[in-house]
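Hi support team,

I submitted a single chain yesterday and got back a structure, but I'm not sure I'm reading the token output correctly. Could someone confirm the output below corresponds to the sequence I sent? I've pasted both exactly as they appear in my results page.

Thanks,
R.
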Amino acid sequence: MGNLVDSFAVLANKERLQILNWLKEPEKNFKSEKFDVVEDGVCVGLIQEKSNLCLSTISQYLNQLQSANLIVMMRNGKWTLCKLNIEGLEKFKKELNEYL
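Hi R., thanks for writing in. Yes, this is the structure output for that exact sequence:
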């Protein structure tokens, strides 16, 4: 049950929830000349720009989402790219269904 509580704590923030929603359809929400937002992921800078929050806040939110296994973050040169963690989201849904 601890994983569920941790995941819900992360999801209880509207900006973090919005980031997950954006990453669900990255091609609709982000444009990048350098990366394929579907295959490679979305650059942290693009997420920060779209959110209008400061970079330190976005970095903290993304780290929290990654710690909850809801997103994956990968380094590509000097960029950090983010994608939904489909396996982590499926595990969360399964645990929730089993608990309820």
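A quick pointer for reading it: Residues 86-99 form the longest helix (14 residues). Let us know if anything else looks off.

Best,
Support desk
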